[in-house]
Amino acid sequence: MTGGSRGIGAATALRLAQEGADVAVGYVNGKEAAEEVVRAVEALGRRSVALRADSADASEAAGVVAAAAEALGGLDILVNNAGVGLLGPLETLSLTDVDRVLAVNVRAVFLASQAAAALMTEGGRIITLGSCMAQRVPGPGGALYAMSKAALAGLTKALARELGERGITANLVLPGPIDTDMNPADGPYASGQAAMTALGRFGTAGEVASMVAYLAGATYVTGAEFAVDGGHAA
Length: 234
Hints:
By secondary structure, the protein is of the alpha/beta class. It has seven helices and six strands; from the N terminus they run H-E-H-E-H-E-H-E-H-E-H-H-E.
């Protein structure tokens, strides 16, 4: 799993471990947090390892997948969770901003999926975390971020077609406002985000992790998008 040291990533790592999976926890910052997740996974009786990789670096984005397979003796599930959020007026976004967001949110997902497909046996799973902003952009300032997350829908459908003969599925999860340290439910912009959902609240990392766990076990679901957004797109 990329981006597994906190928030949705950490919750997903623990949920998959509860379902019987060994878990490699990828991180770029927060080594101590990643190691805490590893210890929590091990406390559930599963094997785990923390692996540092910067998704903005093409070689590391692919290399961490091979490192995970080597450390744990194979690869059955890839969860693409690492991402960067950058919002701002169109005219303020620099070429450096564009390159970084696309490198992490799109290129790294492609490269990790490519590397995983080469290592997976029959029945593997590729699960990618996108964003509710790929379906609905509620206000200005989201052009770059929404573009990067929308690209994942095309990639997911293409992966499903290309890998389906091998029984490998590819699916996309679209979280809405989720209570994490990056976007806390009591933050300065939280009330407005909650009001945009049909349920009127933030979701939890565990609610997103439940969807990932479902897709990890689903054998006849592929090329699909699943909104875990409280009705943000309703």
